[in-house]
Amino acid sequence: MVLNGVGVGRSVAVGPTLRMPEPLSEPVDEVATEPQQEAFARVQAALTAVSEDLSARGEKAGGQAQDVLNAQALMAADPTIVEDIEARLGDGKTGERAVFEAYAGFRDLLVQMGGYMAERATDLDDVSRRVIAQLRGVPAPGIPESDAPFILVAHDLAPADTALLDLGKVMGLITREGGPTSHTAILARSKSIPAIVGVEGAENLADGTLVVLDAAAGTVDTSPSEADVLDARQRIAERAALAAAPLTPGALADGTPVPLLANLGSADGAAEALAAGAEGVGLFRTEFLFLDASAAPTVEEQYVEYERMLRAFVGKKVVVRVLDAGADKPLSFLNDAPEENPALGLRGIRALRASEQILIDQLTALARAEEAVNGAGVLGAGRHGGGGAGERVDLWVMAPMVADADDSEYFTTVARELGIQVAGVMAEVPSSALVADQIFETADFVSIGTNDLTQYTLAADRLLGSVANLQDPWHPAVLRLVGMLGRAGRDAGKPVGVCGEAAADPLLAVVLVGLGVTSLSMTPAAIADVRAELARHTTVEAEALARAALKATSASRARTAVSRLAAANAVG
Ligand code: PEP
Ligand code: MG
Q: 260-571, what's its fold?
């Protein structure tokens, strides 16, 4: 049988499935029927089992992971917690409830202490859940443990789960929920794990089923023949060879350059991006630096971060996005008023216009960082990124969620007044495409955020699995808007990039170029695949693929039509 979903990337995986256990329900606060002594003995046995299991896993993992797991093993055996549990059993609580309440009490204490101690609160939660699972006789929650590599099947993955993914073990991901911009998809792309999200029927996959997961086709074959398995293994080997190919600049088969840039949230990812052949940074998500901040960061705090990023990319271009607060990325110091529809609320440039000093501080910090890296008083080099930046970094700054020419004029004026030389906007709200010619009167460049552009064009919340089928940037409605932006950019003689997840889908990347997009920015792990696919098509072919996509009547038909045509090109 073949299950269908939305594939992430182009890779293939073959292996047995393993299901992620369902989250545990909170133990009910009911009167205990079990005698207190028996309940305490059961709880003690569960605590010992969990403590021993955590130590054993620590020993196997070694390194930093061993320290974390040993600390958790100690928490499970902590005498103060054991005493607390015993006292609660004395008050007539059930074993599960006493464990739940005792750990919750200590957790709250840690949170009140703040700092490092507060960060341990989630470790305590994890121990509590493990003990309760042990008492119930069900598998421990979280990523399942296995000695052999497996393909993980889950309802969906939370960011906390994904941080624990052992890449040596998890060969692929299949989730019931999620769309192409869900956390699972973004993680899979950044770690190069083949994934299919939004798979109906995933919940019925029995553990140990041998499957072939084909991300390019968006399929999970649950009963592959021997030949299918062999074919998949050969494709895996071909991809491994591709990843080892030389790091040439992005270009179409006819030599038309298409710079391949990296999406980064801090300078920590710079080395990895450069190693993948990134030709610069196409989206620096500055809000990621300050997600936990309760007060607006100072100019000095920001300067340090920006200077670090700019230095890492000397000789290249760095496109910085000013703080994009709101909806899926709330920043308490920028917009903490409750809103009925935060995705349609005071977010992006709207929030910055309402708190102008925050925007001024950020632009000031950016201009100072550029000055520090490039040397004071040198103006104009590298404008519009034609290369030849030498030892200078080419700083471009853009505003998120720009709706129209007024937003564009406002942002670019403030940015230039504060010393930013190249100021542009993100096209994420459909209105920006409809008035793209007006926007180009003030913006030096446009970068298309296809994640939000898709969400708003199809009116489908990008965080909601139930509308995942609509969150597809292959939709011809989204592509028509991209085409309008591409044409307006060409008419104005200004660059139009894409920095949404669409740029990381190799075949869609070719379509975007065919629609007039001049650079692509993505998670560094996707660069090799996109580079290889671009090199298979000329400009004329890319434009033909774009026309086929625009003519299709749905996202899936666009994908199919373009895949067929691209395969024919490759043969011909
Ligand atoms: C986008 O919306 O496509 C984008 C690049 O911004 P973000 O995903 O950070 O909202
Ligand atoms: Mg966005």
A: TIM Barrel (3.20.20)
